[in-house]
Model the fold of this input.
Amino acid sequence: MQSEEKEKNAVSAPVGDVINEFIQKHRQPIFAAIGLILLSLIAFIVVLSVMDMVRGKAISAVEEFTSRYETLHPSITEEYAEVDVEELISELETFAGRNSGKISGIATGYAAGKAWALIANIHGERKNWPAAEAAWALAAKTAKKTYLAPLALFNAGAAAEEQGKTSEAIEYYTSSLASTAEFPGAPRAQFAVGRLQESLGDTAAAIEAYRAVISRWSYDQVWTSLAHSRIIALEGE
Done:
């Protein structure tokens, strides 16, 4: 009878009392777990704050570099500006190396990519196409998750073309089309692939590339029209 009475009392005990008893028995591990959760939350907030600060500084720095580039731009090829231009390139390379995006995320990766893009523009202005190609490739690599990546790959292709590196240029243009970022120059890049395949004498590959322009970017009247013209010309030969 007594055991039955105890069971009845246990069943009828208020839920709050049961919870309180459980907390009292296990208060140390519970408080320790809560403490760890709070510490983790604080650490997470601190990390986010530091990352935001680093990103902000990186973006501000690249904006300053851009302003310096724009000031120097009219005289980039002039001998009297050579020292200033070389100094800017050196600072940009150092900055890009420090902001690769491995630690601080997409924002600093974009800043580093933008720095390489500025370097590439300078080399392009000077007609130093090998250096421009290399810098554009680095811009695409460091800013691969941003809109800058496909644009940089396209420009690397143009720099490769200037050197007569047709196969490499095709690869760059094709890579720019594979980017997940939005790329307004995609129809032009696809047409360039067809144009270069045509220059290599690969008519079938050229026609295939031109047809891709028409099927994928039918809304673009300029490049689809040019693609139609080239297909007609090649099939008529």
About this structure: The chain has eleven helices and no strands.
